[in-house]
Structures are given as C-alpha cells and as structure tokens.
Amino acid sequence: MFLPAVDIRIRITGVKSWKVKNKSRAFWSGQFNVSNALLLSTVSSAQYSFCVAYTKVRMRALNVALFLCCLGVAICQQVEVEPLVIQHAERTIDISSQLVQISHKLKIENTGATGGKYVLFTVEPQLKSHLSFFGATLGKEGKGLRSTIVPLNSLTSALTYRIELPTPVTKGKTVDVEVETVYTRYIEPFPTEISQKDKQLVKYVGSHYLYSPYKVVKQTTKISMASKNIESFTKLKPFSQSDSSLTFGPYENIAPTSVSELTVHYENNSPFLTVTKLERVIEVSHWGNIAVEEKIEILHTGAKLKGSFSRFDYQREPNSGISSIKAFKTILPAAARDVYYRDDIGNISTSNMYVKHDSVELTLRPRFPLFGGWKTRYVIGYNLPSYEYLFADGSQYALKMRLLDHVFDTLVVDELVVKIILPEGSSDLKLKTPYEVRQLPRTLHFTYLDVTGRPVITLTKRNLVENHIQDFTLEYNFPRVYMLREPLVVILAFLVLFVTVLIYVRLDFSISSSKAAASKGGNSAVSETVLRRHGKRAGLYETFDTQLSKLKANKDASAYQAALKNLTQDHKAETQAINDIITKTRPESPELADSITELQKLDRGFWEVYIQYGQSLEKLVAGKMARPQFLEQDNQFNTKRDELAEKINKIIKTL
Amino acid sequence: MAVKLLKSKTGEASSHKYETLLKLTILSLGAILSFSTRLFSVLRYESVIHEFDPYFNYRTTKFLAEEGYFAFHNWFDDRAWYPLGRIIGGTIYPGLMVTAAVFHYVLNFFNFLVDVRNVCVFLAPLFSSFTTIVTYLLTKELKNESAGLTAAVMIAIVPGYISRSVAGSYDNEGIAIFCMLLTYYFWIKAVKTGSIAWAAACSLAYFYMVSSWGGYVFLINLIPLHVFVLMVTGRFSHRIYVAYSTLYCIGTILSMQIPFVGFQPVQSSEHMLAFGVFGLAQILAFIDYLKSKLTQEQFDTLFHAVFSLFGIIVIGAVSVLLITGKISPWTGRFYSLLDPSYAKNNIPIIASVSEHQPTAWSSFYFDLQLLVFLFPVGLYVCFSNLNDANIFIILYGITSIYFAGVMVRLMLVLAPVMCIMGGIAVASLLGKYIKDIDQGSKSHEKKTVKGRDSQQSQSRRSEISMAFVGMLTFFMVMYAFHCTWVTSEAYSSPSIVLSARSYDGSLIIFDDFREAYYWLRMNTPPDAKIMSWWDYGYQITAMANRTILVDNNTWNNTHISRVGQAMASPEDKAYEIMRELDVDYVLVIFGGLTGYSSDDINKFLWMVRIGGSTDRGSHIKEQDYYSSNGEFRVDREGSQNMLNCLMYKMCYYRFGQMYTEGGKPTGYDRVRSAEIGNKDFELDVLEEAYTTEHWL
Lengths: 655, 696
What we know:
Chain A: It is a single-pass type I membrane protein. The structure holds 2 protein chains of 2 kinds. By secondary structure, chain A is α+β, with helices and mostly antiparallel strands.
C-alpha cells in the first residue's frame, strides 16, 4: 500500500531538479514547497487516496513543465556567473585530524548592475567525491543560508553550490559569507605502509588559491596541522611557518578558477578511523523506554601495518604503534542507561563509563588495538527514557532524536542505516529530516507479544561527519487504547492455557477405561448410600463408647442394658438396610457388592468385639471378674478393635 | 483410641489434596532451584558458551537454525580438518542441536526473539530441571513418593551433574542425562506393568538418548544386563519378555536412523550383549511354552539336544563374523573403560584429554559429598526389599560407580543414581525414625497404666530418633551448602574468560582468548588456514570463523600427529610440514606471563607423544624433550630439542626481554617458575602476527 506513494515521491524529486534548471521561478515557486514537503514526508495510508487524486491533477501540470524545461535547456544557460568579485578570502584548512575541514570567510562585492541574489561556490573536481558536509552562513549574524547544487556549464567537472542570499547585494555593496566544508578520506598516508615503530606521515594536496568562479582580489590560506613535524610543503611565496601551522598569502588578483598545487607532507598520528557501516536501530516503546542499538564496523584507514606486530614493543615503548588506536570515547545522551558493549562473540570487558552531568562518556577499547588496515565490529546499545524524546498531543506523537550520534571525535561514517521501530498500531507517519536521506521501503518488525507487527522506517545515507549529528522529527498517530493490547494478549494466552488445563483435567480422554468409569459413575449413588448408612453406624459405635465409659464410672448396669437395647436395634436396622443394597447391586456390579459384603462381615466382627467387651465390663462392675483379668481383656479388646477399624477404613476409602 | 472409624471419605480427600499441593510445591521448587543454581556463570560473567565442545555444538545449532534440517544433514564442513573437511551431518549426535533449534523455532514463532546463543546457553539448566522431575518419577516407581521428592531435590543441586550442565555448557551430556533417566523411568514402568505402550515409550526415549549422546551404549548394555540378571535369579516373566522384546526391536531400528550410529547396533561388539540377551529371552520364553505343553521327560531330552546344537551354532557364527570383520572390535574409548591403563599405553590421544583420566578419590567426595555415604545405605534398603525394579537400580549403581572410577567424565552418569539411592536411604531412615518420634510423643500424652520400664524405653527411643533426625537434617543442610559452594567456585567459570584478583582486591579479567579469536576473525583473509593444537579447534571455527587443521573431534590421529610433529620440530623442519599442510597462521596459547597453567607448553608433552605415535613422526621421541635428569624443563637445563622447537620459540618469542615478576630476571615463566633457557632468538620462517594483551 505504501509503495505507490514512494513511487510518486521519486518522480517529484526528478521534477524538482528540472525546475532548478528552468529559470522561470515565479511559475514554480508556489509549488516548490509542496513538492519539498512531499519529498520529506512519506504519504501515509490515510492520506493516500487524497494524494492519488492530487497527483493526477499535478501530473498534467508536470507534463507541461517538462515541455517548458526542455525548451529552457535549449535556449539558455542554466546558471549565470554574475559579475561578483571576492574582495577578500580567508581560508582556514584544518588537517590536524583525518578530516579536511575548510572554513572560508568571503567578502563579496557586486560589481555588476543586476543580480546579487545568490553567490556561487565551487568545489574542486578532485575534492568532489570527498565532500561530506557543506554549510553556508551569513557573516555577521551567523544565520544559515539555503544552498542548492546547480550545474554550471563552464565548470562541469566541479561541483557548484548556489547560496541564496536573504537580501540581494546591490551594486557596489559587499556581503560577508562564511562557508564551511568538510571532506572525508582525502588525506592520504604517505608512505602507505609503515612498520610498528614508525610514525604516520600523510600528504595533503590542495591549491594555494581559492577555487572560485569569481575573481579573488586578495586571499590568505592558513593550514593547521597535528604536529610541527612537517616533511615538506610547496613553497609559493609569500608564506610563513609557525609551530604547527602554515600561512600562505596574501595573494592578490587571482583570476577565476585558477589552480596552483599545494602539497603538505607532515606527521599526523591522530586516529584515522572510519566507520564503514553504522546501523542504528531506535525502538520506541510507549511504556516509557526508547532502546537504541548501534552496530558499528570500524576500519583503520591510515597507513597499513607493515611487518609483524610485537606486543613487547607495544607495551614497553610509548612511541611504538603511535598511529594505532587503543581506545576511543563515545559520548551518549545524558539519560542513557543499561549500556552494553559487545560483539559477535560476547561481551567486551574492556570499557569504562563515566556519567557526567550532561552526557554519558564511554571509553571503548576494542578487543585489540587497531593498526592500519585492521578492522573490528561491535554493538553498543542503551536505553533512554521516552519523556525526553517523545512528545504527545492526544494520540498524536512526535519523536525527536538524533539521526546520527557521536561515535568518536572527527567521525567519518561511510554508510549510515537508521531503523526506527514504532509501537504496534502506529499510523500516519510523517518524517522530517535535517538533510536529505534515502528512505527504504517500509517493513514490519515482530517482537514480543506482537500480532500485526511494528512499522519500521529505514533511512540510509552515505558519507557523514560530525556536522551531521542533527535531530530528525517523526510524527505519528497512536491511539492510547492500543497500549492495552499487550497486556490483553498476555491475559488471553494465560486464559487459553488455563482453560485447556481445565478441560483436560475435567474430561477423560482414555478409550479403554471409559466403560469402567461409566459403571463407576452409576455406582457412585449406591456407594454413597452405603457410606451414609455406615456413617450412622460409626456414630452408634461412638455412643457405645460413651455408654461403656458411663458404665465404668457409674457402675449402673441397668441403664447400660437399656442403652444397649436401643443400640442393638439401631445397629440391626442399619445393617439390614445395607444388606438390602447388596442384594440390589449384586446383578449390576458384583465387585461392588463383594466389597460391601466384606464390609458387613468386618462390621459384624467389630460389633461382636464391642458386645464382648461390654459383657466383661459388666462382670467387672458386678465384681464377678478380677481386675487383672479384665485389664488383659481390655488390652485384647483394644488391639482387636484397632485392627478391625483399620480394615474397615480401608474398604471405606475404596468405595 | 488409636484408630477411629471413618465416617466418610471427605476428610481423607482434603488431606490428599494437601499432599498433592505439597508434592507439587516441593517438586516445582526443586526444578526452579536446579535451573537457578546453574546461572552463576551468567550472572557473574555473561551469557556465553563455555569450554571447547559447546562451541562446536553452538556453531552447528546456528547452522541448523538458519539453514534447516536437510542442509544440516548434508553439511560438509570445509572449515575444519583442512584439507580433509568433515561431514557434519553424519558424524555427530544431532539430538542436542535439533532440540535447541526446535526451542528456538517455537519461541520465535511466538515472536519471542531469543537468539540461538541464548537458547543454547539456557538449554542445559532447563533440561536439568526436567531431570529433577524425571528423577522424582523414577524414584517414586522404585520406592515411594517421599524418596522421590528427596532424590529430586538432591539431584537439583548435586555438583557431579551441575559440572556438566551449568548455563553455557551446551553439551550433549546436558540433555543426555535427562534422556537416560527418562528411558529408565519408562523401562521400570514397562517392567512393572509388562505393557507394550510403556515399552514403546521407553524405546522412544531411548531413541532420543541415542540421538543425543554416545553414552547411550551404557544404557543399551545396562538394560540387557538387568534382564539377564532377572533371568538368572529366576524372576524372568512375561512382563519382562514383552518389555524387553519391544524395547529391543523398536529401539534398535530407531537408533539406526541416526546417521552417526548407522549399523553399529547390529554390528559392533558393544551392542552384542543386548542382542544376545534378546535371543536368550526368546529361547527362555519358548522353553516356558514347551514346558507347559510337554511332560518332564520329553522336555529334558529335547532341551539337551537343542541346547547343545544351538550353542555350537551361535559360537560358530559369532566367531565367523568376528573373523570376517562384520562385527567390529571394540573402540579405544570402550577399551579404556574396561581397562583403565589401556589408553595410556596405546592411544595417547584419548589419554591426553583430561576428562578421560581416572577419577581421584577426592573428587568423588567433592562431587557427591553426603551421597557417598548414603549410597550404601540406599543399596541396603534396596537389597532388603528386593524386586525387579530394585535389581535394576542396584545394577545401575554398581556399574556406574565402576565407570565413574575409570573416567572422570562418567561421574555424570553416577550422579543421578547416587541421588536416587540417597533419596531412598534418607526417605526410609527418616520414615522409620519420625514414626518413633510420633509414637514417643503420643505415649507421653497418654500416660496410661503401662509399666514404667516400657514408658522409659519409649521416651528414650523418641529422644534417639530426635537426635538422629536432627543429625540427618544437619547433614542435608551441609550438603546444600557444599553443593552451592562447589557450583559457585568450581563449575561456574566459562573458561573462555579468566578472572583473577589483583593485590588490591579488584577483579582483573583476562579476555585474551576472545581477543585473539576476534582478531583472527576481523583481520585475516576469510580463507586463512590456522594451525593450532586441537583443543582450540572448535573455538577457532566458532569464534574466529576460520579454517583449522585439527579440532576437538579427534577422528584422524595421523592428522593431529602431523600438527604435533610441526609443533615439536625445529623451525626449518616445521616450516616444511606447515607448507605441506598449507598453513597461514599458527596459534599458540601461552600462560607464562599471567600464570595460566593449562597452556600449550604444558600440553606440549602430549604433542610430542601424539606426534611420535605415527610412522612419519617416528623420529620424534619423548625422551629427547626431557632434560638429562629426565625432567621436563624450559630453563637452561632443558634439552636442546626442547629449546629449539617451534612451540618453544613461538611461545617465548621476545619473552626473554620481558620482566614478569618483581625480583626475578627477565623471561621468568610464572607457570613453570623458571627463567627460560633460550632467550635471544629470532623467528626465521614466521612472523609475529598478533599477541594479546596478557600474552596468552
């Protein structure tokens, strides 16, 4: 469903570049924002239908535009170099790290009668592919200026930016523009292979003059390096050298796009580390947590290690392997917790974490020191509280986080992949990025307790530096009710489990015993009545016990006789009742009848024991029996009674 | 009035419910305990696979989980045994990997994103909690429920079993013990009931056992032995006939489905006892049948004739098969089981593994503690109440105690039976004495007109019982403490990460193994061939993902021997061997700086022995590597051969300039407490590629 939308987006992008070529800006300006907005946001499902209709209308307009553009290309040159002059250019080239950071301070004067709306800035052809970051600000206020890449016929091999000025420079007036450019992987190690004890020497090749389509009246260039140890440099006068910096110029009245090669061969032991691939996964949970995980592949891009690596030298001599990287610092957001640092084969135990008031500083030491050409790979992850990055308005949420975060100072990232995983059920995704990135097709991610999957946005960009550490904003819609979904899934799962157990326990699945179980069920009524009768009988025995103890105490034989008569009667009645049951059940289930018969037999014995004991007690009371003799009988009675009672209980349990 | 007549069943029923609840609680607590006590290493270090073999299992499991069963079945591994390779599918017991992969698949199906490594790490603890439950069932069948509960709780923490099943020790044994006990349980059930269903269940459990561990041979010999003993003691009956015939037929056919086992169950000598007993069972059953049909005299005549004829035929057939080689002779490991000195004399490679060494007496106590003393008691209880099932457990106990004495590794097989016996012993002792306490207290209350003497003896009895029960409880508590201590101290280090305490008490972690493996993984060409001693083979393939020459599956003695020769030769000869084997990197483990004692120099003698055990290495003699006094030394007095061999040079390369300990000269080896003999030398044919932080 999302795919067509993406398709449309790509087309519009194409048109945009056409538009730039065409100079009739008035015609297009109204739509520029629209297409730009479309570019930055991917159309969500809710907006989809609207979009299709809208695009149909636009398509017709686009066809017309296409035609006009062709005409435009045929008739006129794309961009004119306006008659501007750079009065004073001050370049600072920082090559103390692995990056080339050039900041230009330009004082520009309009010498022509018209124009002055924009300034062109060109990047030399050999630097074009190394350019990572381009930023222009207005000199005094430091206000950011909008810049776009334009083709320039006169300089097709170079890369030209058009910097749009907020107010046009009129004739004779000047404007201060500062341009900041960062180039990656441009400084080359020379020699390309060094042994462990050598220092790393690198070579920077540039130009003494500012490469510009305009004439430069006066210019100076300052180069700052990592150390004062300079092997050689091109000596185009005037120049001066101090400590770890070189100053060239001022050179005066240099014609447009003139080049004079500048080479500096110097020592640079600063880390030449490149992140060849960084995969950043941001997983948002509405339960208050944002999990960030970064998979990082690092390569040492400095001079390669020649010969063997000696641990002995490395540990003994401080200058041994000076260009190698033992550890580096990664700065995480202040709220980061549960930080982990591991790789394919487990936890890396060599790291330290310092919690500072505005950040968490992590000193990461790879498993082994990185020499030139060596690489490693690791994973770092942490949790962030969502209240710092997630903003809500009703069911509308906005996630504001860094697209790229700090890995080490003077960072170079070859390829960045960012995956943003939103909660299950989010919709209407609108993404705003600080710079242009490529969006890959959306996918779904399944994790714990997911049913429909979580939407994943994947972004990718190549060649990034520290200046790219900026925030993106992702807006989406997430009904709060969906928060209950996961607990409900858990509850449901347990419910199903319990119900299954319940059913399993209650039902009898066996095949063979079903008949026995059925007959048992039929007999349960019978055994219950037997048990009831037997219970009454047991009650009678208890009364018997009390009567006996009464007799012992009161020695009242007549009262005992009367009670005994009653007891005998009741006992007989119960026994008879049970006997009736036996005759009734015999044909149906002989087994049950047998066991009840057994019960009856035992009960008869039990009764006899009681009667006999009663008789001897009477004799004792009447004085017809000696006490020792009675005690003997008493003992016998006790054992016999216990024995029988045990047997009876056994049968009762089986009933 | 001691016994009261029951009025109805209800009172009894509720107490029955309480009993069930209590049983369930104890059992589930035992299961949870057995799981959690094995997590020491995960909590202390991390969720990581331990030791050597588990790394191979982990690697294969990962392959299985990713590629599916058929790819796994046909997997030809070219990373190991270069240039020979190894057919993984046909040379392993797949039960463990399949189990883990199934767990992984099921969890992921329900979107529980647990990765393969974590499944592997926690599989052994999980199965040990299953074992707890099975032990309960088994002991319940043997004795009663209380014995079952005691045994279950004991096995939950017995160190002998924990040593092989802590979290991260992802090895066959972890699930095999569960399978074994399950098979025993079904077997006892089958013997008791004589039902085909139980026997079939037993053979399924046996199949699972076969698929997971080579130790199934013990099982397939023990059960026939049981049957045989029952025959001899005249307890053979139809029940046993049914149970055994079913088990043997189904079990054998199933076990032959495992590619690694193949036709062994009908060909190798190890399985012949099972086969013989099967035949015997048929004959006995037939004789019983004839007896019931014929008169005594007819029977006698027939019996004599047939018996002698049949005996001759069987002996003839077996000897013919043995000569023609249809029945393979016993394997080395099996011989070393029967004759502990066999391996030492004949196959150095088996003897070189520490877990194949005979067990020290102290380790019995260390691993079993109280159970050592309870075992005879349990044995006595079993003998005093002899029945079919008890005979089985007696046999199991006696055979396993012998095997555990021969090989350290088989302590694992002994541990469960020790627990069962212990459970039986404790339950019967407590049962007896607690009854006395009960009676004693009752007689006190009663104060009847009984004689003074008897009353006094009663009370004394109760006091003695009280003391005894107290003592036993004390012992049990001690047992629990001991087990926890052993688990935490001895069995919970992953051996891949070493830790030590520095002088100020802070923890130093030596993670050099992984440092080296990861360096290999990241910074060598993907097709690099790495030579190392075979101990590290599995770890290199799993963690460094590089091709190795030899690994822990020691199936090719000559190949290993070749590597041993390379290590033991002087540099120029070693170079030739290494070129022949197409080696790119050589990995040695050296503990001289940190004091890690199981390093390659200490294993070196085994390399020499194994290297010299084949024809091509006959020039390498163990004697040449000893000093003149016949000692193994690395210092100045060591033999010249020793001081110039490749292993020595690689380990001590530039070590001569290193200060290791205060007050000692440079190049002081902290493991062997000696200053090394050969200090200044250069490697001619190799160059130091990478040395880890602590020089391991």
